[in-house]
Specification:
This protein is α+β, with helices and mostly antiparallel strands and 414 residues long. It folds into two domains: 153 residues, Four Helix Bundle (Hemerythrin (Met), subunit A); 232 residues, paralog of FGE (formylglycine-generating enzyme), CATH 3.90.1580. Helices cover 33% and strands 11% of the residues. It is built from ten helices and twelve strands. Strands 10-9-8-11 form a four-stranded mixed β-sheet. It is globular. The chain starts with 5 loop residues before the first helix and ends with a strand.
Length: 414
C-alpha cells in the first residue's frame, strides 16, 4: 500500500476496526464485561485496549492539541507497556464495571475519527511514513486481539451451566481424516525468519541461517480419535510419558482430557456439540502434546523444522468457515495439510530471540522481546486467526500449561 493512498489506508483501518465490533455483536453487555480467568480479558477490555493503542502511540504523539478521550483510560487500558506508565492489574479487568460498554463504543468512534483525520492529512514525508508504520502495527495488534476475543469468550461461556452458544449454528461432521503419512525432509542449511517487504513482527527477525538434521513431519494434525486412544491407553496415568513438570501439573489440577472435552461431547463456540472423532484435537497444553508424541513414538517438531517444511508448501489452501478446527481443506497427497487455519501447533522450541534480535526503541519495543522467557513457540494459525494474518515465519508463544487457545499437535520424528 503506497503511503499516498489515503483512501486505502482509511478503508483498511475502518475494515479492521469494524471487525472487532462484529465479533462482539452476538454478545450481551454482560457477556462483554466478565473475565473468566486472569489469562483471559473481557471483550469490553479488548475493545478499549485496542483503541488505547491508537490513542497512546499515535494520537498522543502526532495529533496537534492532543487531549485524551478520558484521562483515566491511559492506566485502565494499558496492558503491559511499562514505558507508558501505570496499568490496571490484569486479573482485575473483569471488575471494571465503568466505563460502560456504550462508553467504550464512544471511545472507539472518537479515536477512529481522529485517526481518520490524520490519515487524510499530508501524503508524504517522514512523519507520514511513521504514521503509516504505527497504524499498520496498531491494526496487526488489533487482529491479534480479535483472535483472543474469540478464545476468551469461549472460555467465559464454557463456565456457564446453560451451555450458551456464541454462534447458533450446528457444527457439521468433518470429512474423514486423511491417512497420516510421514513426509521426509532432507535437512541441511536453510534460512528462517521473515522474508519480504511487507509487515512482520519484530520477533520474526532477523532472517538467519539455520541447520536442521534430516527429519519427517506428519502430513496432518492429530485427530480427536487418535487422542482418545491415548487417553484410553492410560496416557494421563503413565508418568513415563510426561515431562516432570507436566506430570505435576496434570496431577495438581486433576486434568484427564483436553480443556473442553465433556465425555462424548465438546464445548465449542457453537455450544455443546458431539465430539467429532475426525476433527483435530484442540485446546491442549504443550505438556499434553509432548506426552502424546512420546506415546505415539514421535516428538514435537522444532520451530525451524516446522518453518522450513512450511516454506515448501506455498499455495496450500488454508481452512475457512466456523471457528473450530477441521473444516474441509484441500491439499494434494504427499503435501502437508492443516498448516494454517485449524490449530496452532506446539513446537519443542523455547521462545527466544533470533541471533541479532534488537527490540525497537521506546515502549513499542516492549511488544515481544520482553516475553522471551518460560514460553514455547507455536506455529501456523488457528480457526480463530483473522484472514491474512498467517505466514510461515509467524511465531506465536504461550506458557507450557496454556490451553484456552486453539492449540493442537503435528508430530515429527528423526
Amino acid at each position: 500500500m503506497h503511503m499516498h493512498d489515503s483512501g486505502l489506508w482509511a478503508a483498511r483501518f475502518q475494515s479492521v476496526r469494524q471487525q472487532s465490533l462484529a465479533i462482539a455483536a452476538p454478545l450481551s453487555d454482560e457477556d462483554c464485561g466478565a473475565q473468566s480467568m486472569p489469562d483471559a480479558s473481557p471483550i469490553k477490555w479488548h475493545l478499549a485496549h485496542t483503541t488505547w493503542f491508537f490513542e497512546t502511540f499515535i494520537l498522543e504523539r502526532m495529533e496537534q492539541g492532543f487531549k485524551p478521550f478520558h484521562p483515566a483510560f491511559r492506566v485502565l487500558f494499558n496492558s503491559y507497556y511499562n514505558g507508558v506508565g501505570d496499568k490496571h492489574p490484569r486479573p482485575q479487568r473483569g471488575l471494571l464495571t465503568r466505563p460502560s460498554l456504550a462508553q467504550v463504543r464512544e471511545y472507539r468512534a472518537n479515536v477512529d475519527a481522529r485517526i481518520a483525520a490524520l490519515l487524510g492529512g499530508p501524503a508524504d514525508g517522514a512523519a507520514r511514513a511513521q504514521l503509516c508504520a504505527l497504524v499498520t502495527l496498531g491494526l496487526e495488534h488489533e487482529q491479534q486481539h480479535q483472535e483472543l476475543m474469540l478464545t476468551d469468550v469461549k472460555h467465559l461461556l464454557a463456565q456457564n451451566a446453560m451451555q450458551p452458544a456464541y454462534l447458533e449454528t450446528a457444527l457439521p461432521p468433518a470429512p474423514a481424516a486423511s491417512q497420516l503419512v510421514w513426509l521426509p525432509y532432507e535437512g541441511g542449511m536453510g534460512e528462517i525468519g521473515y522474508e519480504g517487504g511487507g509487515f512482520c513482527f519484530d520477533n520474526e527477525l532477523p532472517r538467519h541461517p539455520q541447520y536442521v538434521a534430516p527429519f519427517s513431519l506428519a502430513s496432518r494434525l492429530v485427530t480427536n480419535r487418535e487422542y482418545r486412544a491415548f487417553i484410553e491407553d492410560g496416557g494421563y496415568r503413565n508418568p513415563a510419558l510426561w515431562l516432570a513438570e507436566g506430570w505435576d501439573w496434570i496431577r495438581a489440577q486433576g486434568i484427564e482430557a483436553p480443556l473442553y472435552w465433556r465425555g462424548a461431547e465438546e464445548f465449542t463456540l457453537m455450544g455443546q456439540q458431539a465430539l467429532d472423532p475426525e476433527r483435530p484435537v484442540t485446546h491442549i497444553s504443550m505438556y499434553e502434546a509432548d506426552a502424546y508424541a512420546n506415546w505415539a513414538g514421535a516428538r514435537l517438531p522444532t520451530e525451524a523444522e516446522w518453518e522450513l517444511a512450511a516454506r515448501r508448501e506455498r499455495g496450500v489452501a488454508t481452512a475457512a468457515g466456523l471457528p473450530h478446527p477441521g473444516e474441509p481443506v484441500s491439499g494434494e497427497e504427499g503435501r502437508l495439510k492443516q498448516l494454517f487455519g485449524h490449530c496452532w501447533q506446539w513446537t519443542s522450541s523455547s521462545y527466544a530471540p533470533y541471533p541479532g534480535f534488537k527490540p525497537a526503541e521506546g515502549a513499542i519495543g516492549e511488544y515481544n522481546g520482553k516475553f522471551m522467557v518460560n514460553q514455547y513457540v507455536l506455529r501456523g494459525s488457528s480457526c480463530a486467526t483473522p484472514a491474512g494474518h498467517a505466514r510461515a515465519s509467524y511465531r506465536n508463544f504461550f506458557p507450557s500449561g496454556a490451553r484456552w487457545q486453539f492449540t493442537g499437535i503435528r508430530l515429527a520424528r528423526c
